[in-house]
Design brief:
seven-stranded mixed beta sheet; alpha/beta; Anaerobic Ribonucleotide-triphosphate Reductase Large Chain; three-stranded mixed beta sheet; 30 helices; 46% helix; single chain
Length: 737
């Protein structure tokens, strides 16, 4: 046995009782008897595997034992490479940065914008003890997927260095108390109180990639716009962005082209083209692209659209790699409820005959508004061709597809637009890949192509091409620690700085990012927090807690953006917004003294960000931070996390004889309670929530329909996947935060 092995066992004995380590010591002794001259690394590899095999619901602490052994192995490897002792492995951070910046792995700004003295000071803030906060799966996820690697794919960055590099990158251009702001950002990240979005986590401080999570484009009804969108989608997908595409303006199958009737092939071939792009243009070689396409429920191609991902039928009518979302007005849901007829139109014919685009309208009030007025005009006009079907038949096709494939996502467009704080500048047609981003959208219009001085010059009038900049609070750690008031201003500043720092290869997206300065501060670890507070999921107490907690998060987020506006200026389109007029606060019933004071401050100084909150799925980063995903209930208390090359046992966080009673599987929870919780928190979130519905594959159609009707009636703006026990679904990596 080497001295290192003895030291590691002694260290573990200081952290755990003799009874807790009994199995480990026995397994270690047996292995050492068989491998007398083994190295520390060989012993560590063997003991990690042995320790992982011991993880179960009765003894979840083994994940931290495995993580400690893995850490010591990492420290040993890095100390050898850096030619220092294990205890000094973090102390050479400035030299490490300089070496790998010169090698082209880090961006030069890390060493040119920070002085040698500042780098030494930042190195002194690295806290090695915070490495011990990781579970094994969290640590392995970080080391396998996010830290900097050299050209031989060997990791050259330790966990605390990744956090510090992210903090340094995002705060590099701050002019006042910059080092203190870096330190605060590092504090937030390294304590796992929050996570940044996957692109920021992966790319901050590196020489390639961009920092935003995902994007949304609007396709105009022209061949030029369709192909321009495909190019833009490919470009963004290449750099690691997930894409949402609204195709509701494209004419339907059988529509006319230049007066020739029946010439159009509809949306299907263009969706298939996007499907090929998703498969062909992978995200930095890590995974194929991810694209969600949205269509209106009154579009004539809606039935073809709903069948796109089905496993049977004509393969020429399928696009298995595209995720579908349906844009639903209140009137459709009312018609389903009344078992009435629904009229399907061609958007091109509506424009030609009626002189307006039906998709450009929404109901300004519940039960009344311009969409239903315009829709009634279309129905009444005999010159418009249409297909008339029972609304419930469309709903049946929706539910059939959801139970087989998990999609379409449901986008309740009227409620989204009614609550849009920037409706003075446009409207929201659809959402993103994960249904939590709602920002103003418009198509980029082709104007001309000319030859000037032997250079081909293309001119396009930019539309609003939405950009999502995301970050999430780890509720399971931040709320018990009582740090929200300190944490949220740090997060908002970090997100706002992403906007300035990001290099987006699509110019209209860059323009939109700067016009609205939209961010999406979200949360994960909701079920973790409920368990810690001993609150049952299916209870009024959970609903009231969601309402109270998210109101506090909203208050702190809006205040932080307002304070940033006072320091750096409001976003360019602030004037005339609901923030400016106070309508934002009226609609949500914010009338306490605290809220009224903030309302006055916003009216005076503005908001730095036009959009501020969104709750993303964050499945991968919640694993990294050792908590539960998003606002979802758990699948089960123990499971195996399966990736390409490994399978690791995992238990839910802080599992104990007390918390076990509060961890109920999603598939056995009445989803109406989940909807009720989300209706409560949705009031406080200006954008949206990735809300999954979990159902047994034996669910009756009337029960699934009742869930959808309840979600819509409750004011929920979207639902994400319908997760049936028989459906395997893609996790959105881009929005993970």
């Amino acid at each position: 046995m080497t001295i290192q092995i003895e030291q590691q066992i002694a260290k573990l004995k200081k952290s755990y009782t003799e009874d807790e380590l009994e199995s480990f010591v026995r397994l270690s002794d047996r292995w050492l008897r068989k491998n007398d001259n083994a190295t520390f690394e060989a012993w560590a590899d063997a003991m990690i595997l042995q320790t992982l095999s011991l993880i179960d619901e009765e003894e979840p602490y083994w994940t931290f034992v495995a993580a400690q052994i893995y850490l010591e192995k990492l420290y040993d490897q890095f100390a050898m490479r850096r030619e220092v002792s294990v205890k000094d492995v973090y102390k050479v951070f400035p030299e490490h940065l300089a070496h790998y910046t010169e090698a082209g792995l880090y961006h030069e700004s890390l060493t040119t914008k920070y002085s040698e003295q500042e780098l030494q000071e930042l190195a002194s803030y690295l806290d090695q003890s915070r490495d011990e906060l990781f579970t094994y799966i969290g640590l392995k996820t970080l080391m396998d997927r996010y830290v900097v690697r050299d050209y031989t794919k060997t990791p050259v960055e330790l966990p605390q260095e990744r956090w510090m590099v992210i903090a340094m990158t995002l705060m590099q251009d701050e002019t006042e108390n910059r080092i203190e702001k870096v330190r605060e950002s590092y504090w937030a990240l390294s304590n796992l109180y929050m996570t940044v979005a996957t692109p920021t986590l992966s790319n901050a401080g590196k020489t390639h990639g961009q920092l935003s999570s995902c994007f949304i484009d609007t396709v105009d009804d022209s061949l030029q716009s369709i192909y321009d969108t495909n190019t833009d989608v490919a470009t963004l997908s290449k750099y690691g962005g997930g894409i949402g595409v609204y195709m509701g303006k494209i004419r339907s199958r059988g529509s006319s082209i230049k007066g020739f009737k029946g010439a159009s092939s509809g949306v299907l071939p263009w969706i298939k083209q996007l499907n090929n792009t998703a498969v062909s243009v992978d995200q930095l070689g890590q995974r194929q692209g991810a694209i969600a396409v949205y269509l209106d429920v009154w579009h004539k191609d809606v039935f073809t659209f709903l069948d796109l991902r089905l496993n049977n039928g004509d393969e020429r009518l399928r696009a298995h790699d595209i995720f579908t979302g349906l844009c639903l007005p209140d009137l459709f849901m009312e018609t389903v409820e009344a078992r009435g007829d629904w009229h399907l139109f061609d958007p091109h014919e509506v424009r030609e005959v009626m002189g307006y685009s039906l998709e450009d309208f929404y109901d300004e009030k519940k039960g009344d508004g311009s969409f239903r007025t315009k829709y009634a005009e279309c129905i009444a006009n005999p010159l418009l061709s249409r297909e008339v079907v029972p609304a419930i038949d469309i709903m049946k096709r929706i539910m059939r597809s959801q139970l087989e494939t998990g999609v379409p996502f449901m986008f309740y467009r009227d409620e989204v637009n009614r609550m849009n704080p920037n409706k003075h500048e446009g409207m929201v047609y659809s959402s993103n890949l994960c249904t939590e981003i709602f920002q103003n959208m418009s198509a980029t219009e082709f104007e001309s192509i000319t030859l000037e001085d032997d250079v081909i010059v293309t001119r396009r009038k930019p539309g609003d091409f939405v950009v999502c900049n995301l970050s999430s609070i780890n509720l399971g750690r931040a709320v018990p620690a009582g740090v929200l008031e300190r944490l949220i201003p740090v997060q908002v500043r970090m997100l706002d700085n992403v906007i300035a720092l990001n290099t987006i290869p699509v110019k209209q997206a860059e323009r939109t990012n700067l016009r609205y300065r939209g961010i999406g501060l979200g949360t994960f670890g909701w079920h973790h927090l409920l368990a810690l507070k001993e609150i049952q999921w299916e209870s009024e107490e959970a609903v009231e807690f969601a309402d109270k907690l998210y109101e506090e998060i909203a208050y702190l987020t809006i205040r932080a953006s307002n304070e940033l506006a006072s320091e750096k200026g409001a976003y360019p389109l602030f004037e005339g917004s609901d923030w400016h007029t106070g309508a934002y606060f009226d609609k949500r019933g914010y009338d306490s003294n605290k809220w009224n004071a903030l309302r006055a401050a916003v009216a005076e100084k503005g908001m730095r960000n036009g959009y501020v909150m969104a709750v993303a799925p964050n499945s991968s980063t919640s694993i990294l931070a050792g908590s539960t995903a998003t606002i979802d209930p758990i699948f089960q208390k123990s499971y195996s996390e399966e990736k390409k090359d490994y399978k690791i046992p995992v238990t839910v966080p802080d599992l104990s004889p007390v918390t076990t009673w509060y961890y109920k599987s999603a598939y056995f929870i009445d989803q109406n309670w989940t909807i009720k919780q989300n209706a409560a928190r949705a009031r406080h979130i200006d954008q949206g929530i990735s809300l999954n519905l979990y159902v047994q594959n034996t669910i009756k159609a009337k029960d699934l329909l009742a869930l959808h009707m309840n979600a819509w009636a409750s004011g929920v703006k979207t639902t994400y996947y319908v997760r049936s026990t028989s459906v395997e679904l893609l996790e959105c990596e881009s929005c993970a935060s």
